[in-house]
Design goal:
The chain is of the alpha+beta class. It folds into 2 domains: 1-31; 34-131, Domain of unknown function DUF5300 (Immunoglobulin-like). It has 1 helix and 9 strands. It has one helix at residues 2-31, and strands at residues 34-41, 47-54, 61-63, 71-77, 82-90, 95-103, 108-118, 121-127, 130-131. The strands form 2 sheets. Strands 1, 4, 7, 8 and 9 form a 5-stranded mixed sheet that branches. It has a 4-stranded antiparallel sheet with strand order 3-2-5-6, with no helix packed on it. Strand 7 (108-118) and strand 8 (121-127) form a beta hairpin. It is rod-shaped and about 85 Å long. The model has no long low-confidence stretch (mean pLDDT 86).
Length: 132
């Protein structure tokens, strides 16, 4: 009986250690899947509302009103590889749609989207920073 227990322990011990290692890896890997985006309105116009999404996610995040020279934060978690897409509606009827940046699953980001006016057009300038 003791030989059977030792044989069983010799098989189950490494298997249990492997499972524990895999679970720890997944917890760390999945825990790093976050993006915090700061949207800064430098257009000179008040943003009445907007939407920000990552192309790998089915839903977008609503961005409320952002006055000129003000900012707002949006957070995403558990996403796959994709790009940011921003659309916004400004006071006076102007609208914008722009995309940029790139996020990958398993990494975390602290990104900034600068909303600007360039040659009479509204554009979004995407700046990214990966952190661990």
């Amino acid at each position: 009986m003791a030989k059977k227990n030792r044989a069983l322990l010799a098989v189950l011990g490494p298997m249990g250690l492997g499972i524990a290692t895999a679970l720890i890896f997944l917890a760390v890997y999945l825990g790093k899947n976050k993006s915090i985006v700061t949207i800064k309105n430098e257009t000179g116009l008040d943003l009445m509302g907007g939407q920000l999404r990552i192309t790998s996610l089915p839903k977008e995040q609503e961005v409320g009103e952002i006055k000129s020279n003000d900012s707002a934060k949006v957070q995403f978690e558990k996403f796959g590889d994709g790009r940011y897409v921003f659309s916004g509606q400004f006071k006076g009827g102007k609208t914008m749609l722009d995309s940029g940046g790139y996020v990958t699953s398993g990494a975390s980001y602290k990104d900034v989207i600068l909303l600007k006016t360039r040659n009479d057009s509204l554009v979004a300038d995407f700046r990214q920073k990966v952190y661990k």
